[in-house]
Amino acid sequence: MSVHSRSTRQHLLRSSLAVGALAALGTGLLPAAPAGAAPARTDLVVGTSVDPVEVPAGGGSSTLTLDLRNSGTKASQDVTVAFTLPAGTWFFTDGFVVPPSWHCDLLGTATCSYAPLAAGEVADTLSIPFGIPAGTAGDTLTITATASTRMESSLTNNTGQATVHYIPSTVDLDFVPAATTQQLLPNEQAQLVTSVRNTGNSPSGEVTVTTPVPAGMRGWETYNEGWDCAFGNGVADGRTGWRCVHGPLQPGQTSEPLTFAADLTDTTVGDIVTLEATASTTSTETILDNNMARDTVTVEQGATVRGTVWVDNNRNGVRDANEGGAPVGNGGIDHIELIPQTSGQPGYTVTVNPDGTYVAYARPGTYRAEFYVQDPHEFIDSVDSDLIYHWNETGGYNNYGYTDWFTVTTSDQVTLDAGVN
């Protein structure tokens, strides 16, 4: 056994105390771990909204928008969002795009999944349209979306809700445009061109537009794409005119254009004539005051061109006092036209009377009159004829001739005759 002297023992004791003091000092300089620090956790936050928030009582659709973020301090695991739909509602499966980052089963489990979200990360916005059944105005429907993953710090903000409100259903037809005006000459053609629009929030029933032909006008059968139109006596609510039928119009939908055309055959300068179209539907409408379209026509003064296609019965090349006009139609006058010299300016088909006389009303400009007569009548050269050219060997049913160019202004009166035998 080793024995130390007293002085040696005292030296060893002092050395041990010094080492212990240094160790204690070193330990006091090391950083201490916080006693109450919380572990890193995921925290999902869900937000939902719908647009529109109101739907008609007859049913409709809206779009659910989902916003998802991780407000925690740790990345999440895979996220699943489960939707709870009210009875009778359903998700659409086409007509929209699901972002590639989302994977959805909308027909089966009504869930969508997303890859892990980093701390603070926001998921791509997800918007899903859904159908809504008929309900009662004033009632509501609520859609719920709940997100889940593993190891969250809080579940209080994992669920979002959005509410749809039922409002009264409305159907309201109007015309676009509802009113037009024209300034026309006698025998020119008036046109009412318009479309029907449903400004209500619900689909209409079958749409019908009736347009009677006003007194002083002659209507024409017309074709309007998207419409089933008829023209004739008694068609327009018992009057001569048009009746056009279109399928139901959706909320906000505007139909294909409608055109109704009628000639001013029996009007005089200063007359005001109106073409009126009225729309109706098989469903109940909210407002009826806007169901009419009008084209108001004011008959203006123009130049007058008139004359006679006379028959040289004795073939002496002049018009004798007792020589009247040619018959109209088969074996007589086929038609007469005023042709404008300027391209783009309107021409006119004139009114031919049974006694061979004619009259046309023209706007200021330069024209020539073109005459067409059927065999056996042929045009002749005569000092009493205003034709500068004629051709009686056309090879068709009509022989042809025309006058020189002439210029008219408003209120001018011009007489142009043509002789035939």
Automatic annotation (TrEMBL):
Q: Which Gene3D superfamilies match?
A: Immunoglobulins (2.60.40.10)
Nucleus: present as a keyword of the record? no
Q: Which Pfam families match?
A: DUF11 (PF01345)
Entry keyword annotation includes Protein biosynthesis: no
Q: Which InterPro entries match?
A: Ig-like_fold, OmcB-like_DUF11, TAT_signal
Q: Which residues form the signal peptide?
A: 1-37
Domain DUF11 as annotated: residue spans:
43-164, 177-297
The GO biological-process annotations, alphabetized, read as:
carbohydrate metabolic process
Which keywords does this chain's UniProt record carry?
A: Signal
Q: Which domain of life is it from?
A: Bacteria
Q: What is this protein called?
A: Conserved repeat domain-containing protein
